[in-house]
């Protein structure tokens, strides 16, 4: 991505976990670009086809402030890793009173995360795969697990245990997501077991069943379909017996209607 900030959508968003979106929604800033290159990416238009618009930090500060003034439970930066310098400048200008959420692929460097200490209240990373091989195969990066697992360690170090207020809104903590892929229940179960053993109640876990084949995944024999109810229940059962706290999506969330409309300028 270029040095200037590019965003693909700035709007209230209501479909995150209940502790993030609550009733009033989160003010979500979807940045253009991503640190991974997943073959099944449902947001490909913005993550890799550069559908977005250029904004200055002052312009973005005005847009975000206007939305926050209308009411929101939180402020979420989505695929933010390549724009952390801009995010820090933005937060210095707007000083939000709601929790700030860093919603990331999880493929973050420790150096970048350390800069964010004190600015981010909630880390919301994915842990997509339990090993490096799947990271290379499906997300086109080397050392996926090594890098992401270290990044999550740093996130948990910064936030400490999850804190949820009396209104049911998360104020602080790390919540790790895993999207169940078709034919890969073993991978999700390994991720759950790893997180349960390493972190237990120091994190929240969010199991996602919204997979729909997109892009190159449509031509991949293992990934060219939605997950079955049986696959999802198998992973869900591992989650339930793991001792991790958190959330799971309903399988009906595997629908294109939950993909937002993007801002339409192209880089
Ligand atoms: S991490 Fe998410 S947004 Fe980025 S390429 Fe993968 S699926 Fe797409």
Defining key terms:
single chain; 267 residues; alpha/beta; TIM Barrel; ten-stranded mixed β-sheet; 20% strand; binds iron/sulfur cluster; iron-sulfur cluster binding; Radical SAM protein; rSAM
Outline the structure in words.
The mean pLDDT is 94. Strand 8, helix 8 and strand 9 form a beta-alpha-beta unit. By secondary structure, the protein is α/β, with parallel strands linked by helices. Strands 1, 2, 3, 4, 5, 6, 7, 8, 9 and 10 form a 10-stranded mixed β-sheet that branches. It has a single domain, classed as Aldolase class I (TIM Barrel). It starts with a strand and ends in a 19-residue tail after the last strand. It is globular and about 45 Å long. The protein contains 9 helices and 10 strands. Bound molecules: iron/sulfur cluster. The site of iron/sulfur cluster (SF4) has 10 residues, from loops. One of its GO terms (molecular function) is metal ion binding. Keywords: Iron, Iron-sulfur, Metal-binding, S-adenosyl-L-methionine. It comes from Ruminococcus bovis. Its cofactor is [4Fe-4S] cluster. InterPro entries: Aldolase_TIM, MJ0674-like, Pyrv-formate_lyase-activ_prd, rSAM, rSAM_sf.
CATH fold-level assignment: TIM Barrel
Question: H/E element string?
Answer: EHEHEHEHEHEHHEEHEHE
Q: Please provide the count of β strands.
A: 10
Instruction: Please outline the major beta sheet.
Output: 10 strands, mixed
Average pLDDT for all residues: 94
* Bound compounds: iron/sulfur cluster
Low-confidence stretches: none
- Terminal CA distance: 10 Å
CATH architecture: Alpha-Beta Barrel
Number of helices: 9
Determine the strand fraction and express it as a percent band: 15-25%
Structural class, by secondary structure, is: alpha/beta
Per CATH, the class reads Alpha Beta
Percent of residues in helices comes to 25-40%
Choose one word for the global shape: globular
What number of domains?
1
Cα gyration radius (Å): 17 Å
Fourth CATH level, the homologous superfamily: Aldolase class I
